[in-house]
Amino acid sequence: MPHSGEAAVFQSAVILGSGLGAAGEMALNLGGIAIDFDQIPHLPCPAVRGHAGRLIIGTGELAGTLLLQGRVHLYEGHSLERATFVIRVLQQLGVQNLLVTNAAGGISDAFRVGDLMLLNGHWTFLNVHQPSNQSRKGPSTKLWSERFRHVARSVDSSLVVHEGVYAMMSGPNYETPAEVQMLKTLGVDAVGMSTVPESLAAVAAGMEVLGVSCITNLACGLTDHPLNHCEVSRAAAEVETEFARWLFNVLSRLRF
Ligand code: HPA
Fold first, then answer.
1. 7 occurs within a structural domain
2. Does residue 39 surpass a pLDDT of 60?
3. Is residue 136 part of a domain?
4. Which residues line the pocket of ligand 1, CB cutoff 6 A?
5. Are 67 and 95 in contact (CB under 8 A)?
6. Which of 1, 148, 184, 216 could form a disulfide linkage to 232, CB 3.0–4.6 angstroms apart?
């Protein structure tokens, strides 16, 4: 951890979700340095397609930023401690600002494929709280930084940026149409299988967090064709370059 008064070497980090790794490639083209997750002691490696499993150290306009291409999910069989280990690594490196991104299914009628949603609330049935946190105070109501959302909304982009509530389901299967109807009734705007555990761990570690969903599909049952991982990857590929530019602009505004 940096000593008080000393600037952190790595101020910001971005976790890049399914198929959203282009920001990592762009960071490498700008001179960034890649370290495979398996070179970092104890860091679990992602097994899901679309998650490269690399830590990229940003340089130039991305100096002070770490980009993580990929994450592990609870549904891969990892414990909560292992799935959030990366947050403790980032904490030791001095990271204060965390952007957590994911691919998600859109539930809100206002959402179209390729839109972004800034998380302003979340919902899950899963136990995503660290056993070491026995205070039973419940998660902070300020989990999703209002300040960061304000910054993110101020960035010009061709992408449509909404705000809404994210539901984390267990996966690895997509939801049934009945589950999606239930989530819609509960006021959920987008559904995915990640983001909440890392974000809770990050806030507990004193970081400020922006959660961003890229809507890669309409959730199951909201269209008449069955959903599969290829559709999610294809939709992510179509927006990932513009998404990366948007992310870099958000990062540059968070620095000042
Ligand atoms: N459901 C859950 N996770 C997802 C989805 C979805 O529809 N799309 C991308 N990740």
1. no
2. yes
3. yes
4. 103-105, 169, 174-175, 191-193, 216-217, 219, 227, 232
5. no
6. 216
Please name which of 85, 36, 82, 42 lies closest in space to residue 57, comparing C-alpha atoms.
36
CATH number where 93 lies: 3.40.50.1580
Q: Euclidean distance between the first and final Cα of the chain, in Å?
A: 21
Give me the domain span that covers residue 179.
12-254
221-246 residue pLDDT tens? 898 888 888 888 888 888 889 999 99
Q: Is residue 4 part of a domain?
A: no
Question: Probe ligand 1: pick from 115, 168, 174, max atoms within 8 Å of CB?
Answer: 174
pLDDT digits (tens, 9 = 90+) for 188-221: 999 999 999 999 999 999 999 999 999 999 998 8
Q: From atom 10 of ligand 1, which residue's Cα is the shortest distance away?
A: 104
Residues 6 or more apart in contact with residue 174 via CB below 8 angstroms:
105, 219, 220, 227
